[in-house]
Amino acid sequence: MVRKLIFTFVGMSFLLPPLSHAGSFGKDDPSGIPGQWYVGTKPSYVSPSNYPILFIHGLNSSSNTWWNENNMYDTAYQNGYETVFIDLYPTKNMWDNGKLLAEKIHEMYDYFGKKLVIVSHSKGGIDAQSALVHYGAFPYVERVITLSAPHYGSQLADLAYSSWAEWLSGIIGSKNDATYSLQTGYMNYFRSQTDQHANVHRNSFYTLGGTKWGDFGTSLYWGGLYLSGYGPNDGAVTVNSSKLTYGTELTVGEWNHTTIKEGTSTFHLFKPYLNDLDVAAAISPQAEDEAAAAFNELASYTRGGEYTTKQQESFVVEEGVKEITMNWISSVPVTELSLKDPTNKSYASFTIEKDATGYFSNAYHHSLSIKNPQAGQWSINAESDQLAHYLLNITFDSPLHENLKIDLTDNNIKLKAKDYSLQIKSTMTIEYYKDGKLKMGNIMIKEEQDGSFKLPKIGEGVYNITIDMTGILNKQRFQRTMIKTVYIDAKGQVHFYQ
Question: Which domains does the chain have, with CATH numbers?
Answer without folding.
Answer: 5-149+203-281 (3.40.50.1820), 300-495 (2.60.120.380)
